[in-house]
């Protein structure tokens, strides 16, 4: 019995945590500290805070992977969610390891916008597209993250002649198409952008650079 107790403790999953980007939400965990814990199978349950019963996540029941997609299960984005994981090895089951509380609307990371750049001889037109959530409209298109938050685009210009690391904020607002005027012909400029949510004081990462020579 003692050996089983030891095995139970040594295969118990560690560091159970939610990772979420644009409401695409996965649960991650580490194996227990025993070397053989790498061969364990895992079982995932979830619930909304306040519910009394845990529900099995069928696709993550008896899996060898240490990631479980809970995007669909956490679609009530204002509610706090919990998940828990247990491991099994050689017929022995560990105790459950509980995640922290996860509230998608407050805690999901926001991705950067898509940026397209069109240039003329003295100006750059920047087209912006907000990141999309995994949730779909009735017609099938994915709902943009701007439906869930009051968000601003922040657009920065980098003059490569001066300094590649120096980003200057040239626009903040909700317009999806902006024009940057009075630039110097023959100079290489790069544009990066990010999303900003004032109410949470959250920013996305920067978009990838879109560069052009006028």
Automatic annotation (TrEMBL):
<dbReference type="Pfam" id="PF01108">
    <property type="entry name" value="Tissue_fac"/>
</dbReference>
<keyword id="KW-0675">Receptor</keyword>
<keyword id="KW-1015">Disulfide bond</keyword>
<comment type="function">
    <text>Receptor for IL22. Binds to IL22, prevents interaction with the functional IL-22R complex and blocks the activity of IL22 (in vitro). May play an important role as an IL22 antagonist in the regulation of inflammatory responses.</text>
</comment>
<dbReference type="InterPro" id="IPR050650">
    <property type="entry name" value="Type-II_Cytokine-TF_Rcpt"/>
</dbReference>
<dbReference type="GO" id="GO:0005576">
    <property type="term" value="C:extracellular region"/>
</dbReference>
<keyword id="KW-0677">Repeat</keyword>
<dbReference type="GO" id="GO:0004896">
    <property type="term" value="F:cytokine receptor activity"/>
</dbReference>
<dbReference type="GO" id="GO:0005886">
    <property type="term" value="C:plasma membrane"/>
</dbReference>
<dbReference type="Pfam" id="PF09294">
    <property type="entry name" value="Interfer-bind"/>
</dbReference>
<feature type="domain" description="Interferon/interleukin receptor">
    <location>
        <begin position="108"/>
        <end position="212"/>
    </location>
</feature>
<dbReference type="InterPro" id="IPR013783">
    <property type="entry name" value="Ig-like_fold"/>
</dbReference>
<dbReference type="InterPro" id="IPR015373">
    <property type="entry name" value="Interferon/interleukin_rcp_dom"/>
</dbReference>
<comment type="similarity">
    <text>Belongs to the type II cytokine receptor family.</text>
</comment>
<dbReference type="InterPro" id="IPR003961">
    <property type="entry name" value="FN3_dom"/>
</dbReference>
<protein>
    <recommendedName>
        <fullName>Interleukin-22 receptor subunit alpha-2</fullName>
    </recommendedName>
</protein>
<keyword id="KW-0732">Signal</keyword>
<keyword id="KW-0964">Secreted</keyword>
<dbReference type="InterPro" id="IPR036116">
    <property type="entry name" value="FN3_sf"/>
</dbReference>
<feature type="domain" description="Fibronectin type-III">
    <location>
        <begin position="6"/>
        <end position="96"/>
    </location>
</feature>
């Amino acid at each position: 019995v003692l050996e089983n107790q030891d095995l139970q403790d040594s295969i118990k999953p560690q560091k159970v945590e939610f990772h979420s980007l644009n409401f695409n939400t996965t649960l991650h965990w580490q194996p227990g500290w025993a070397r053989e814990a790498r061969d364990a199978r895992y079982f995932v349950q979830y619930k909304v805070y306040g519910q009394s019963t845990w529900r099995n996540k069928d696709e993550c029941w008896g899996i060898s992977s240490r990631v479980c997609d809970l995007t669909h299960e956490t679609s009530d984005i204002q509610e706090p969610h919990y998940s828990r994981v247990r491991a099994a090895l050689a017929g022995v089951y560990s105790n459950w390891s509980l995640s922290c509380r996860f509230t998608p609307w407050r805690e999901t990371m926001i991705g950067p916008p898509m940026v397209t750049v069109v240039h003329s001889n003295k100006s750059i037109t920047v087209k912006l597209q907000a990141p999309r959530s995994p949730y779909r409209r009735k017609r099938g298109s994915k709902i943009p993250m701007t439906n869930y938050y009051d968000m601003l685009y922040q657009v920065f210009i980098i003059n490569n002649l001066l300094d590649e690391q120096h980003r200057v904020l040239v626009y903040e607002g909700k317009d999806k198409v902006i024009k940057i005027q009075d630039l110097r012909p023959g100079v290489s400029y790069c544009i990066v952008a990010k999303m900003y949510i004032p109410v949470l004081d959250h920013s996305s990462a920067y978009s990838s650079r879109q560069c052009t020579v006028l």
